[in-house]
Amino acid sequence: MANERKETAVLGGGCFWCLEAVYQKVRGVHEVVSGYSGGTIKNPAYREVTTGRTGHAEVVKITFNPDVISYEIILSIFFTIHDPTTLNRQGADVGTQYRSVIFYQDEKQKETALQLMKSISEEKVFANPLVTQLVASAPFYVAEEYHQNYYSRNQEQPYCQVVISPKINKFRSRFSEWLNK
């Protein structure tokens, strides 16, 4: 275990609680941390990010073993569990902080994302064009503690049942081979 390779993916697809809840169930993922990236101020707080004025997106930082799961599969899951065709929104969550964004960590990740996005567009997987931003890695700031593991601690909350649970079910049905055993 100590010699396992680790890579990082930073993704924004609406509320970070949704992405976190799904990626915590993915085989080969070591850790998922909710946070903020892509903005103009250092160490933003949730109350600042939610105004949409800091430029940050709600994101998850995913640490995974590329010998178990590829970055391409990580991104394929991402494009399945959120709507990458709605600009600055996911469902009722509206604002630039909920944008669809991939913060690539290196040129290999950038190329993988570009190829996958091109394939999705050419195959017309979605009725509308992708609006997912593909941008270079930016500073990542860990969100407040109450945002971490939100779904696992609050499954009975209406938002969790109505918004997050369906995303988990979609992941389970389309990527069952990647579900943690």
Secondary structure layout plus pairing:
Elements: E1 7-13, H1 16-23, E2 29-37, H2 46-49, E3 57-64, H3 71-81, E4 89-90, E5 93-94, E6 100-104, H4 107-122, E7 133-136, E8 140-142, H5 150-153, H6 158-174
Helix pairs in contact: 1-6, 3-4
Determine and state the CATH class. Answer: Alpha Beta
Spans of at least 5 consecutive residues with low confidence: none
Estimated radius of gyration: 15 Å
Percentage of residues in helical conformation: 25-40%
Explain briefly what this protein structure is.
The protein is an alpha+beta fold and 181 residues long. It has six helices and eight strands, in the order βαβαβαβββαββαα. It has one domain: Peptide Methionine Sulfoxide Reductase, Chain A, CATH 3.30.1060.
Describe this structure in words.
It is a single chain. With 181 residues, the chain is an alpha+beta fold. It has a single domain, classed as Peptide methionine sulphoxide reductase MsrA (Peptide Methionine Sulfoxide Reductase, Chain A, 2-Layer Sandwich), CATH 3.30.1060. The protein has 6 helices and 8 strands. It has a 6-stranded mixed β-sheet with strand order 7-6-1-3-2-8, with helices on one face. Helix 4 (107-122) links the parallel strand 6 (100-104) and strand 7 (133-136). Helix 1 (16-23) crosses helix 6 (158-174) and helix 3 crosses helix 4. The radius of gyration is 15 Å and the shape is globular. The model has no long low-confidence stretch (mean pLDDT 95).
